[in-house]
Design a protein that fits this description.
single chain, about 200 residues, mainly alpha, two-stranded parallel ribbon, 2 strands, about 5% strand, rod-shaped
Length: about 200
C-alpha cells in the first residue's frame, strides 16, 4: 500500500514538473517580446546617496544640527546649575540639621525631595522636547530629500535610489559610478539658498 501511494505521488510530481517546464519554454518561444521585457526590467537602474557625505556638505543639515547641539548644551548647562543649587540646599540642610527640631528637619527633607523631583521632571521634559525637535528635523529632512529625489529622478529614470552609510548599511559594495550624492547635495543646497 505504501509503495502504491509513493508511486502515485512520484507520477503526480513528474507531471507537475513537465507542465511547468512546458509553460516556461512555451511562453518564451511564443511571446519573444515578453521575454525581452522581462530581461529589460531585470537590469534595473540603481543609484545611491552617501548619507555621511550628504550630512557633511548639506548646508541646512549642518546649520540645524548646530542649532540642536547648541540647544542641548544650553539645556545641560541649565540642568547643571539647577543640580548645583539643589546640592547647595542639601549642604545647608546638613549644616543646620543638628540645630533643627524634628518637625523642621522633616519639612526641610520634604522640601529637598520636592526640589529633586522637580529637577528630574524638568530634565525629562527637556529631554522629550529635544527628542521631539530632533525627530521633527529628521522627518522634515527625509521629506525634503524625498521631494528633491522625485524631481531629480524625473529624467534620470532610476528605479531605486538607496541610502549608503559606511558601517551602517546593508549595501556591502557601492560602485562610484552609481553615486549621485554630489548632484543631490548641490541641488539641496541650491534649494536651501533660495529659501
Amino acid at each position: 500500500m505504501k509503495t502504491t501511494v509513493s508511486v502515485i505521488l512520484n507520477i503526480v510530481l513528474l507531471f507537475a514538473v513537465l507542465v511547468l517546464f512546458y509553460l516556461h519554454f512555451h511562453r518564451e518561444t511564443s511571446h519573444p517580446e515578453l521575454s525581452h521585457q522581462v530581461d529589460s526590467t531585470s537590469a534595473a537602474q540603481l543609484a545611491y546617496v552617501n548619507i555621511d557625505t550628504l550630512q557633511a556638505h548639506y548646508t541646512y543639515f549642518k546649520e540645524k544640527r548646530a542649532q540642536l547641539e547648541a540647544q542641548q548644551a544650553r539645556m545641560e548647562k541649565e540642568l547643571q546649575q539647577d543640580a548645583q543649587r539643589l546640592q547647595q540646599e542639601y549642604s545647608q540642610f546638613q549644616q543646620k540639621a543638628p540645630t533643627m527640631t524634628q518637625a523642621e528637619g522633616e519639612a526641610a527633607q520634604q522640601k529637598l525631595l520636592q526640589h529633586q523631583q522637580q529637577l528630574q521632571a524638568k530634565q525629562e521634559a527637556m529631554r522629550q522636547q529635544l527628542l521631539a525637535q530632533q525627530q521633527a528635523f529628521q522627518d522634515s529632512l527625509q521629506q525634503e530629500l524625498h521631494t528633491f529625489l522625485q524631481r531629480y529622478n524625473a529624467d534620470k529614470h532610476y528605479q531605486f535610489i538607496f541610502s549608503y552609510a559606511s558601517g551602517a548599511s546593508d549595501i556591502l559594495y557601492a560602485s562610484p559610478a552609481q553615486d549621485i550624492t554630489r548632484d543631490v547635495i548641490d541641488g539641496l543646497n541650491a534649494l536651501h539658498a533660495g529659501k
